[in-house]
Design brief:
With about 550 residues, this protein is of the alpha+beta class. Helices cover about 20% and strands about 35% of the residues. Strand 4 and strand 5 form a beta hairpin. It is elongated and about 135 Å long.
Length: about 550
Amino acid sequence: MTRFTALLLPLLLCTATAQAAELTASVDRSRLNSGETVELTLETSDVTQFGKPDLTPLDALFEVRGTRQVNQLNTLNGDNRATTRWIITLLPKENGSVVIPPLQLGDVQSQPITVQVVESDTRENKNSLDPVFIEASLDQSSVYVQAQAILTLRIYHSVSLYDDSSLTPLQIADARIEQLGDTRTYEKDLNGVRHGVIEMRYAIYPQHSGLLTIAPQTFSATLVDTQPSQDANAQGPKPGKLMRVSSAEIPLTVKPKPLTYPIDAPWLPARSLSLSESWNPEPEHIQVGDSMTRSLTLKVEGLASSQLPVLPATDVNGLRRYPDQPVLSNQSTDRGIVGSREEREALVPSRSGTIDLPTVDVVWWNTFEDHLEHSSLPARTLQVANNPSLQVDTPAGNLQPSVVDNDVLWWWKLSTLILACTTLLGFGLWWRARWQPAVHRAAQTGPSPRTLMDDIKRASQANDPQATRQALDAWARQQPETLADMAARFVPLSDALDGLNGALYSETGQHWQGEDLWRAIRTIPAAERVQDPVGDSGLPPLYPK
């Protein structure tokens, strides 16, 4: 048994090593023009592998231009991981869909990769005689406003350049610019001459309709002095010379938003759009109080994540909603930017029964087929069951004591309420007594003259003849002389009373103005007015006579 275990252990170790080891293949781009090279990268983390991959299967479809090996040692969480990479420069021999076959390294094999080789445009050969030239191109001549246009800048050089090369920053007025990936370098044969290519790609989003002009881009670099020439009259560029080349100016037509697009919907011009949802856990067997996470993901080809709108919230009666921060991401592809927006929200049912979730609909404009489209998620119905853990059962034997306790509690509440009311009443009476005068003045019969004067003032200023007459009669009854006597000795009062009587007994009463009467009452001579025996302060005199 011990001998069998000793033989089995190395076999298991070899099997585990073979399962962990793998040879991963990748390319720097999957679409290229004829005559251009592509870089194939083979990577393995198996430290037991020696030698290099067998490149013989590549000879049928590719020309191997160069191979270099890179060894790396990475440390992650205290673990050391060694990787080995082989970077192979390939020149396709055919156009169309070309498959890079699997390559063998020991016992492991890489996966096949398909690349698209497109026929080169003949226009690019016109500058092929120049040692350095720059080419700029757009993927389309016209786009909708805020839609994506891809600008590709390629710098060709048939001579070696120093690392001091530079390109003017791309700046376009009224447009957003996003660089697509890193700068690519590869080789291309033009008229039998091998050129190095430096490629940069940008996504341009015009913000206004009309004609947009992309200004020429200038590239500058210094030529490498590899073979100093002895002939001063030698033709061609001089080594060590600083060269500057510029691209052509490119016009771009920007179309406005179509009239058929809904006014209340956010403008989304895209090549393709997908809307999806996911649940964690799946809402198949949910109960009241259970928490679910719903994720809505909007993925758009041709727009950055910052241009994507907010998705409709799950605002439904019976569900408590707790939203999370949206997750935005961008991915660069051969056809531009693919932006995605993921919105997560925790949903907790607050009641049992049926809860209907509405349809989620996104309106967008298909720029590839040039028409309006809708992408939607269908409506969904949730069946929520009761949660036994949230229900409290009352034992049958405790029913009568509970009723008795409730009756006793009711009497206590009533007695407490009566005590509180009596306490507040006593406090109110005490507070009122604190502000009463120590010596009471003689009681008056009826309202005071000051109050009656205020009644006359309010009624006359309100131009109400009926109310003014009643207040005037009440005031006159407390005067030492009659109203007729006062009118006989004071002409303004007599005139004002004639106007009041005329208003009371004629149809012009609604136009009566009481200001004259109030002025006459206030200006009766002081000797004839009735004075308040207690004065204005409401207190008896300090030293009565």
